[in-house]
Prior knowledge:
The chain is an alpha/beta fold. It is 27% helix and 18% strand.
Amino acid sequence: MLKNIDPLLTGRLLKHLDQLGHGDVFGLVDRNFPAYRYDRPVIDLRAATTATATAALFSVFPLDSYVDHPVRRMEIDDQPDVINEAAAALQQAADAAEGTAISVQGVERFEFYRQAAEARFFVQTGETISYACYLLKKGVV
Length: 141
């Protein structure tokens, strides 16, 4: 165990986060997302919600400040402008961690599945709120 590191941040997860370079992307996805279809590592955080996972992740993970949208979220079918409770929690955690309002881009569900192919790995939560899937782009420290 390390001091001042959230217990959700396992050694395996920290290793994958550390190996990302500037501009690399990982997926933070809910329990229903087909993460294993992409043949990428999947880190299981099934005991975590989006809120608890993002609190831990953003304590060590810098978002890319050189792009317009360092976070992309899966839009809700037929309700693309609706922000669910999970997305609101991610927004709050991102804004707090970065000290500024972070722009989150909505992406249609099937387009999100296509864009998810660029993720280097996935963190799969146990989030029960549907459409709680995000692609996060790494910045610099």
